[in-house]
Amino acid sequence: MIEALKNLKNLIVVCGHFGAGKTNFAVNLAKAKAAEGKNVTLIDLDIVNPYFRAADNTAELEAIGVKCVNPDFANTNVDIPSLPPSVMGAIEAQVREPERVTILDVGGDNGAVALGMYNRFFKDGEYDLLYVVNKYRPLTEDIPDAEFILREIEWSGRLRATGIINNSNLGEVTTAADIIDTDSWCRELAEKCSLPLVSTCAIDTLGGQLDAVPDVFYIKNATKQIF
User: What is the 8-class DSSP label of residue 57?
Assistant: First the structure.
């Protein structure tokens, strides 16, 4: 795992617009942290059932020691924005055990509103909120629009972002060139938002083809399709 991700705080929020690839990043980050020997909890705050979600990976994650906390109706046909008390318990556990890594997969605007319920546990300088962006997705194709989505999420969650993750892709047809072409765009977005560009994600089959891009986090598909 790249140094920038190793150096993240132990309380990590993964946010972004719908379809940006938040879950894929969050699940792979949880696996990478567990591989380092960390005690890891992954909290699924994606309360809209039809979307890809961290709960889809519960069996695989728990097999490697990652504790998963999912909404009450995850992976059902019931679409009720309900969160169990275990979400609060998991966040409180991280406060008591600061060496534990707790990752929150926040699903779009609805998840950001849910995040706002817990913001009192997030002290300045003691968490990272990572904004996952995909330049090729609608509504985040232009820098002003991508920044607007970020500010909406910050407002809804009542937390400030600390970094940007470039997860620009075109699904299973993504080439190395597609990712390379977004590097300068994401750096401009990061500068506009006064945030660091923490990492660029790429599916692991592109390994060795992205030497021109710094800080690449190679990930495996963790959702029902490539991203």
Answer: G
Q: Give the Cα separation of 104 and 97 in Å (integer).
A: 16
Distance CA 205, CA 159 (A): 35
Residue 124 neighbours by CB under 8 Å, 6+ apart: none
The 3-state DSSP class for residue 136 equals coil
pLDDT in tens, 112-123: 887 888 888 888
Strands 216-219 and 40-45: unpaired
pTM for the complete prediction?
0.90
Share of the chain above pLDDT 90, in %: 63
Question: What sections of the chain are H helices per DSSP?
Answer: 3-6, 22-35, 58-63, 85-96, 108-116, 143-157, 176-180, 183-192
Give the CATH number of domain 3-219; options: 3.40.50.300, 3.40.630.30, 3.40.710.10, 3.30.70.260. Answer: 3.40.50.300
35-to-63, 81, 146, 158, 169 alpha-carbon distances in Å: 12, 32, 32, 31, 26
